[in-house]
């Protein structure tokens, strides 16, 4: 039996036209098709055929603007080289920053937790009431928008 290795690419979606306080109206399917279309434009049919079998958007948080893409090891280079060229997703003007490329989903979620904790610390200074802080913390640390059945408490 052959074991397929995957890579998990953590992407930050930067949208200068939408305020950081409002969540993006971004669905994983639209994000997925946009990245696939950009790989088609840059690498052609060969690039699409190479990534198609293991390509999946695992996680997309509209509040923190973080997404995780799963792709097979090897062809993941087609995706990582195409991400900086994505300029629009749907009707949004965006810029995609690759934050992390990991071998396991567990380590990718650990990285996201550290990244989002730093994000929370930077944003808490601007909030005035404890209720606003609690709402922001729930939105940032919400990993339930993923189709992965993983227990976050067991990660740390």
TrEMBL record:
Keyword field contains Phosphoprotein: no
Q: Which GO terms describe its molecular function?
A: ribonuclease P RNA binding
Q: What role does this protein play?
A: Component of ribonuclease P, a protein complex that generates mature tRNA molecules by cleaving their 5'-ends.
**Entries under InterPro entries matching the protein:** Pop5/Rpp14/Rnp2-like, RNase_P/MRP_POP5, Rnp2-like_sf
Q: Does the keyword rRNA-binding apply?
A: no
Q: List UniProt keywords, sorted A-Z.
A: Nucleus, rRNA processing, tRNA processing
Which GO cellular component term is one of those annotated? ribonuclease P complex
This chain's protein is named Ribonuclease P/MRP protein subunit POP5
One Pfam family name from the record? RNase_P_Rpp14
Among PANTHER family, the record links this protein to: POP5 HOMOLOG, RIBONUCLEASE P_MRP SUBUNIT (PTHR48414:SF1)
Gene Ontology biological process terms, A to Z: rRNA processing; tRNA 5'-leader removal
Q: Which domain of life is it from?
A: Eukaryota
Q: Which family does it belong to?
A: Belongs to the eukaryotic/archaeal RNase P protein component 2 family.
Indicate where this protein resides in the cell. Nucleus, Nucleolus
